[in-house]
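Quick board copy: two proteins, each given as sequence then tokens.
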Amino acid sequence: MRKFLDITPNIDFMKLKKFGYIFSSIVVLLSVAVIYFKGFNLGLDFTGGTAIQIRFEKPIDIKTLRDALKDINLEDSVIQEVGKNKRDYEIRVSLKKGSSKEIYRKVKTALDKHFPNQYEILKLDYIGAVIGKELREASIYSIIAVMVAILVYVAYRFEPVFAIGAIVPLFHDALITMGIFSAFSMEVDLSVVAAILTVLGYSLNDTIIIFDRIRENIRIRGKKNLLLLINQSINENLSRTVITSGTTLFSVLALYLFGGESLKNFSLALLIGIIVGTYSSIYVASPIVADLERYLRKKGRKYSQVGV
């Protein structure tokens, strides 16, 4: 491991920047098309539905309860443990599955069959679509606010060219992640929105670290051969990128495989985002900075000096 950390490779990443542009453009356009024509499979948080809180006489696990709901085709419902005694659970069912009365009747039938006289229903709540609409709007505003804050921060810390190079990959990462969820009709709820916001922060962190190294190298060598300098900066950070992204990826993969049904979509969004975010830091953010600098130089325009 020590030897691996000490080695600085010499990979020509910028040689493939045109391929990166083409590949990213195709995937983003496909994602936008899928989202536009197919939309999202919105979860209960956004559509409204029914929430049933249950208490069992003896502790049971979520898998046992989910297996019991298979008889009524509600095994994909959100099931959350309330407290830590493994006796109290909340089952949340989307409005698309039926009315509150219908869901209550189905759940009671399944529980009577698998847990006769071993439970009590503590509470039955209806989550209205109005609340779901408010949550949808709040989620959209949250993502927009994050994008704007990042744009201002990077423009202030570096310079406008770097700000553009940092913000474009964020749209890239978010659109591809949401496009995959839309294409495969995977449920989008608040946990997925939280995962996307987390991914934006993770992707930005990776990009900022590369930009920091580029800025340091520019101070020393100037901008005469920016492509070569960007390549060098990415290579110098490659060991860190591999180790950080690799360990995070394995952790999230373990969460996806063993975290249970309720964490499936959250961890999947993180998995997709980490892979796409690492790729975009190298093949989207850095090439944009190089090409914008070259374009502005040809036009004779000057921005603030890097590192000032």
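And the next:
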Amino acid sequence: MKAESAKIIDLFDLNETIAADYLRSFTYPWEALGGIRELIDTIGPTLPKEIYEQKGEHIWIAKSADVFPSAYIGDHCIIGENTQVRHCAFVRGDALVGNDCVVGNSVELKNVIIFNNSEVPHYNYVGDSILGFHAHMGAGSITSNIRSDRKNIIVHGTEDYVTNRRKIGAIIGDYAEIGCNAVLNPGTVLGRRSMVYPTSCVRGIVPEDTIFTNDGRKLEKK
């Protein structure tokens, strides 16, 4: 089994997001969740006007993006080039969505950074989370972002990380694949190229190149 890591530099290709400089200022990705709104409001006015159109005081949408008329785009949002925001998507706010992404039917986003080429295409809830380059969430898979007892979240692994945050969804590394109807519990971290079986209930750190089965085993990808 590969060694696990929850560090930003081990999970993401920072060339694939306009949040790169911001993320480089942190060691662990959950440390970045508290400043997403301010990040968007800082980056937004600097975006090239020939590529992006400002749609509200704190909303910037690329002219090449395809936002369906029934989609809702809340405040403090950036939607990147060639991204699709499909029928009845609910982008609540504080969402930085990269280029060539899919935000699908009835998907809800809140306080997220989504790298380029990521897909959340069908009935997904993604809150207080970061999705890496080419990450993909299967239909109905969700991030659970708050404990039932409302206590602060601890990221569990061979080392436990005290986050001092009450809300963390999932940190999903580059090229990770999440199967249909999987639940990623608060503080889940998926390494690069990891895979989660459909209907799984995942918690803690899953190393890169690892398969998480729906009976909780972690198998090294061959």
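Board note added afterward: The chain has one domain: 8-220.
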